[in-house]
Design a protein that fits this description.
There is one protein chain. The protein has a single domain, classed as Class I glutamine amidotransferase (GATase) domain (Rossmann fold, 3-Layer(aba) Sandwich). The protein has eleven helices and eleven strands. The strands form two sheets. A nine-stranded mixed sheet has the order 2-1-3-4-11-10-9-6-7, sandwiched between helices. A two-stranded antiparallel sheet has the order 5-8. The termini are close together. The protein is 40% helix and 25% strand. It is of the alpha/beta class and 266 residues long. Helix 4 crosses helix 5 and helix 7 runs antiparallel to helix 9.
Length: 266
Amino acid sequence: MNSLNLLIVEGNLREENESFSNVGIQTHTESLKDSLDHFSTNLKYDVVNPSSDRNLNSVKEKLLKYDGLIWGGSSLNIYNDTPEIKRQIEFMKECQKKVKNILAICWGMQVAVTAAGGEVKKAKKSNIGITNEITLSNEGIRHPIYREKNEKFNSPAFNFDEVVTLPKNGVCLASNKINKIQSLFFKIGDTKVWGLQYHPEITYQKMISLIEFRKDKLIQNRKAFSNEDEINNHISFIKDEMSVSNSTQRMIELKNWLDNININQN
């Protein structure tokens, strides 16, 4: 694999990342680097946080140098329209003008869709740590992001919102009973956006840690569980999936995205 210059965009606020680090949980950027390094040691990373960093103008001036950009997850909700979220949307618009290959994961997909004129709303059902029976559409079966992927699969996931309207020329690549759009593809100008609502880059063990870390909020605020017993039962379900999961197959979307950039460079 050729050497690639990648920009990783951190979607969480700095305070959220500090709370992760304080309890020994990797930030989403750290998880992403580990997963990418599983497929290649020939990658160069820069990291930017549009909500917190104040040097965005200098980053924007360098966007053309990147072979690809990966925008990861976040605990934010895009319809809250805070200044931090607005900064992310505006930065995504700049990226969609200058970076030809964008992999947008979970929150990243929601930001990419919003920036390109699509719509995201609160989902009727949520994925907490895992999502089941994601099924490829006919377009998904043919798309390079799913090369050598099973046509139906489970995946780590954690989302309370979903894409309800695709951007112009957007195509749904996969869905399941929770989210009608589990993955998508669209072009905007010369930029190709591959979007995933689920998290191939995050391990099931980290998802379990996140559930335990957010336990009180999941019960009291999100009303996703009635009590700790329900949470423990759900964690047991995730552990069962973890015992049969193959890490390379789980993360193969990352490899396929990197491979696609390499092919187009040659």
